């Protein structure tokens, strides 16, 4: 909301324009009258801003609503082709990229089998892939908001260096090795944080159409081959004093416990990651959860220990931060079957009254969470209108 301090006429106009655009953005189609009724603005104000948004190419009028007795109202909707962002996911043996339109829909995606290398040739390949996906889809380069790159690892304070990345087998890696040849704005983000932001953004995209109030803060525990996380507050990733906020995977679960890839012992990641879960029995994670569901005694025992460790970690986060907690990452889809089991364990462990409803499992697809760094460009652009 605009503050109670004295504001200028231009600030009011910008504020109203942004409210109108966000309402259109979060509606599949909407009429002028519905905008006026929802936001409490006059039709002349609506019409003026609709013209500005249409002239800038951000919205289109396509079709009409069914008549309720008078003239049919025009359908107003976002022009999805007005802007694009590109996501690039750097993995140990693969590069994935996707083209995202203004609505956050994936228009094109591809993956290339290539081993990560700290050498400059790797950055050349990234730049070529970006250029290729733009050319293949005939995108006007003026409409590219930016390139969102995700990488696993611990970053320095301004994300210009990866201090350590066991999955990529690298240390003190300068990210400009990848970005220096890009022709567009870019951001380089920790993969778990970016995934958390994508989950947050997609899950809220249509929940609060006029979006005059910020969404509730949420904590995300992202469980993949590693364990990471993030806190999203006011549409932003919380960075922390040293850019380590949300590194939940390296909280200590058991002092002097299992060896973690970070070199320490007893980290959450060494007990909850997909890599460790499947390696306990020497089988793939798909087979593990299938056998557990079928009642295999050994798998059931390992799963029970896993859920106990998981709920201990979640409970510790909730006691400290008192925020809703969402489990994401590709392991989350296997945990949906056990959601109520997890919630009951949390209820039993929590020291105060709770029914465990602060906890949920993400329903966002991995294809969407992979686009998190690119989605940051969309979010920033939408808020700037």
Characterization of the model:
With 385 residues, the protein is an alpha/beta fold. The protein folds into 3 domains: 9-78, Winged helix-like DNA-binding domain superfamily/Winged helix DNA-binding domain (Arc Repressor Mutant, subunit A, Orthogonal Bundle), CATH 1.10.10.10; 84-191 and 371-384, Nucleotidyltransferase, domain 5; 204-367, Nucleotidyltransferase, domain 5, CATH 3.30.420.40. Helices cover 39% and strands 21% of the residues. It is built from 14 helices and 15 strands. It has helices at residues 9-25, 32-39, 43-55, 120-136, 176-179, 191-204, 269-272, 274-279, 285-294, 297-321, 332-335, 339-349, 366-369, 372-384; strands at 59-64, 74-78, 84-90, 94-101, 106-113, 144-151, 154-155, 161-165, 170-174, 186-190, 218-223, 227-233, 236-237, 324-328, 359-361. The strands form 4 sheets. Strands 5-4-3-6-10 form a 5-stranded mixed beta sheet, sandwiched between helices. A hairpin with a 2-residue loop joins strand 12 and strand 13. The two termini are 15 Å apart. Mean pLDDT is 90; it is low at 209-214.
**What's the domain count?**
3
CATH architecture of the largest domain: 2-Layer Sandwich
Which word captures the global form?
Answer: globular
Q: Give the total of beta strands.
A: 15
Major β-sheet annotation? 5 strands, mixed
As a whole number of angstroms, the C-alpha radius of gyration is: 23 Å
- The averaged pLDDT comes out at 90
Order of helices and strands: HHHEEEEEHEEEEHEHEEEHHHHEHHEHH
Strand order of the largest sheet: 5-4-3-6-10
Give the low-pLDDT segments: 209-214
């Amino acid at each position: 909301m605009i503050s109670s301090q004295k504001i200028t006429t231009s600030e009011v106009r910008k504020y109203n324009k942004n409210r109108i655009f966000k309402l259109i953005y979060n509606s599949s189609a909407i009429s002028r009258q519905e905008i006026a009724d929802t936001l409490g603005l006059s039709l002349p104000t609506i019409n003026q801003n609709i013209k500005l948004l249409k002239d800038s190419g951000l919205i289109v009028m396509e079709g009409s609503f069914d008549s309720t007795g008078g003239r049919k109202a025009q359908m107003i909707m976002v022009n999805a082709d007005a802007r694009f962002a590109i996501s690039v996911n750097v993995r140990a043996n693969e590069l994935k990229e996707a083209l995202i339109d203004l609505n956050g829909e994936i228009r094109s995606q591809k993956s290339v089998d290539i081993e990560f290398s700290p050498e400059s040739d790797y950055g050349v390949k990234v730049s070529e892939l970006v250029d290729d996906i733009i050319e293949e889809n005939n995108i006007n380069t003026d409409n590219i908001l930016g390139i969102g790159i995700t990488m696993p690892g611990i970053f320095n304070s301004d994300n210009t260096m990866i201090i350590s990345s066991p999955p990529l087998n690298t240390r003190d890696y300068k990210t400009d090795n990848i970005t220096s040849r890009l022709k567009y704005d870019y951001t380089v983000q920790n993969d778990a944080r970016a995934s958390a932001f994508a989950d947050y953004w997609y899950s809220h995209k249509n929940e609060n159409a006029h979006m005059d109030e910020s969404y509730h803060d949420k904590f995300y525990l992202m469980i993949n081959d590693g364990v990471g996380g993030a806190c999203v507050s006011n549409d932003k990733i919380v960075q922390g004093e040293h850019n380590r906020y949300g590194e939940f995977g390296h909280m200590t679960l058991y002092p002097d416990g299992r060896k973690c890839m970070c070199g320490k012992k007893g980290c959450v990641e060494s007990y909850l990651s997909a890599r460790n879960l499947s390696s306990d029995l020497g089988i793939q994670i798909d087979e593990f959860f299938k056998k557990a569901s079928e009642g295999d005694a050994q798998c059931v025992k390992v799963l029970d220990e896993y859920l106990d460790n998981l709920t201990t970690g979640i409970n510790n986060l909730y006691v400290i931060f008192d925020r809703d907690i969402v489990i994401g990452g590709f392991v989350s889809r296997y945990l949906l079957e056990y959601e109520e089991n997890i919630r009951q364990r949390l209820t039993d462990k929590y020291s105060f009254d709770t029914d465990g409803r602060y906890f949920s499992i993400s329903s966002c697809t991995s294809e969407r969470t992979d686009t998190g760094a690119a989605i940051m460009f969309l979010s920033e652009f939408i808020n700037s209108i």
